[in-house]
Amino acid sequence: MKTAFLFPGQGAQVVGMGADIAHLFPAAAEIFKKANEIIGFDLSGMCFEGPAEELSSTTISQPAIFTTSAAILEVLKTEPSTSGILPDVTAGLSLGEYTALYAAGVINFEDGLLLVQKRGQAMQAAADANEGAMVSIIGLDEETARWLCEEAGEGDLLEPVNFNCPGQIVISGDKKACRRAKELALKVGAIKAVRLEVAGAFHTRMMSGAADALAKALADTEITEPSQTRIIANIDAEYYQTGEKIKEGLVKQLTCPILWQECMERLLDDGVEMFYEIGPGRVLTGLMKRINRKIKVVNLSNSKAVKDLLEQAAG
């Protein structure tokens, strides 16, 4: 049976994430300890205790989610009953793609964490330089979402950037244009339009400054060629073939749309039957239910879920 490990992106953070895992499993506690040393501040304290406003900032949430996901992954790898559960393919939503690369063994933990920290800082700086926002639109198809961006944009930047699942598209761009789109969306049949709690217009050209900074950081980072585990790319739903292509994909990701639904459909077409969401929250589990409700996703976001899996695997 083909297996995929999925990793959440920004927005999955919640105060207390990883605390129960680190308390129960020394292997997870060790990952948090290592992260604190690499990053130079008490990241684990931020994950476990907050405050929420700080944890949700782009510069903190990105390394925090990466570390929490890596800590849960470490438990699976080191516990005898689950060490045999290995992914044929890994995937991550936006930021989660870095954890997917780490899980596939093409980047080490320290390099992954430092990259994610630099990415968060660069995205925050780009957001500070531009007045951007993002809105999640529920209930419109792609064609209507594109029309909405054109209409509400009124010449300002506004485009669909996250194709998450049927009926959920995130648009991104100029702050005023996002405000207009939020009002207009309901008039043209959207069930809901929700402004996202993010710093700026991610996945648009407003992030080109961040893409330049990230390209510089990636130039100094070793990313090896995928071997046993394949990694699917957010930007085109194709499998990465080389380390160079991965670097290109990670830079492009900041200014290009994320094709999550297409990625998941590709994995299903390629025969993946078993999915594990590893990290805080249940976002990807929920999206998969909308993409194909028959598919089972094991959500591993807390110690209870991990313990249940360990017992089941020990059988």
Describe this structure in words.
By secondary structure, the chain is α/β, with parallel strands linked by helices. 51% of the residues lie in helices and 16% in strands. The protein is built from 14 helices and 9 strands. The chain has helices at 19-24, 26-39, 43-49, 52-55, 58-78, 96-103, 109-129, 142-153, 175-187, 208-219, 243-253, 260-269, 283-291, 303-314; strands at residues 2-7, 89-92, 132-138, 158-165, 168-174, 192-195, 230-231, 272-278, 296-300. The protein has a 5-stranded parallel sheet. A 4-stranded antiparallel sheet has the order 4-5-3-6. Helix 5 packs parallel to helix 6, helix 5 (58-78) packs antiparallel against helix 7 (109-129) and helix 8 (142-153) crosses helix 9. The two termini are 18 Å apart. The mean pLDDT is 97.
Secondary-structure map:
Layout: E1 2-7, H1 19-24, H2 26-39, H3 43-49, H4 52-55, H5 58-78, E2 89-92, H6 96-103, H7 109-129, E3 132-138, H8 142-153, E4 158-165, E5 168-174, H9 175-187, E6 192-195, H10 208-219, E7 230-231, H11 243-253, H12 260-269, E8 272-278, H13 283-291, E9 296-300, H14 303-314
Parallel strand pairs: 1-2, 1-8, 2-7, 8-9
Antiparallel strand pairs: 3-5, 3-6, 4-5
Brief write-up:
The protein has 315 residues and is an alpha/beta fold.
